[in-house]
Amino acid sequence: MNTSPQFIRFAAVCCFLTVLTTLGIHVDFSTAPVAFEERIFLFRDTAYLFKCWWIIVHCLLVIVAMWGVALLQFRKSQGLIGLGLLFFVVFGITEITRQMFVLFYVNGLREQYATAASPMVKDSLRMSIQTFNFAGNALFGVFVLTFGLGNLCYGLCLWHERGLGKILSWMLLLWSVENFFALSNEFWRSASLATGIHYFSLTYQPFIRCVVGLWLWQKAMILSKSHGAESK
């Protein structure tokens, strides 16, 4: 399989962009309401809608970046890299689906609730909106689990690399451990662990995405030199 250095460079750029999108997701200075009656009007909140689309773009960028890694490692470890890519694709589609449900289903219910006059209709809509939280939590569980498994597979796949690739292997394996702790904490409900996970996401995630981007960029440069030498 002849890997294009141009595409790997493109994947690297996508990965660098995920540094920004990750920070945008986890650095949230908005004051989103907590009360149900106030949250009803989120369907017309521009910042809230923008963040949903921001997350969707983030997932698409991650899939492209991880596909770039898969192209580079496919010959070395087809099983692990293929499985890891599958997990990352499931992660991306799951989170995109969750955000689309919020944008088109939950917000549609919110708009109906805001305009409904009948108390009976309002009660029915309220139940539907609140019940979706359970479905959203289930999708979030799939999202965290598959992302952790993707990091685990990619980390193991890069285990025999040298230099930056070896460092990246360790970092991905550590990230997978954090993912599994994050999933477990959905059941443990530890406030201190939740705080640790939040700051991990705020600092470690952007950093490792930058490292992945640098690794991809290095590989693209090596491929460019290789292709240049072959054409002479």
Explain the overall architecture.
The protein has 232 residues and is an all-alpha fold. The protein has one domain (5-224). The protein is built from 7 helices and no strands. α5 runs antiparallel to α6. The model has no long low-confidence stretch (mean pLDDT 94).
Shape: elongated
Proportion in β-strands:
under 5%
Count of structural domains: 1
Helix run count: 7
**Main beta sheet:** none
- Classify the helix fraction into a percent range: over 70%
Q: How many β-strand stretches?
A: 0
Determine the structural class based on helices, strands and strand pairing: mainly alpha
Give me the Rg, rounded: 21 Å
Sequence-ordered SSE layout with sheet pairings:
Blueprint lengths: L4 H22 L9 H4 L6 H28 L4 H38 L3 H39 L6 H25 L2 H41 L1
Helix pairs in contact: 1-3, 1-7, 3-4, 3-7, 4-5, 5-6, 6-7
Question: What structural keywords apply?
Answer:
single chain, 232 residues, mainly alpha, 7 helices, elongated
